[in-house]
Amino acid sequence: MLRKINLTEKFSLINETWSPKIAGQVNDCHVKLAKIKGEFVWHSHESQDEMFLVVSGEMELQTRDRSLILTSGEFVIVPKGVEHRPVALEETCIMLFEPLETVNTGDVEDSHTQKDLEWI
Amino acid sequence: MLRKINLTEKFSLINETWSPKIAGQVNDCHVKLAKIKGEFVWHSHESQDEMFLVVSGEMELQTRDRSLILTSGEFVIVPKGVEHRPVALEETCIMLFEPLETVNTGDVEDSHTQKDLEWI
Question: Which keywords fit this entry according to its UniProt record (chains A, B) (predicted)?
Answer without folding.
Answer: Isomerase
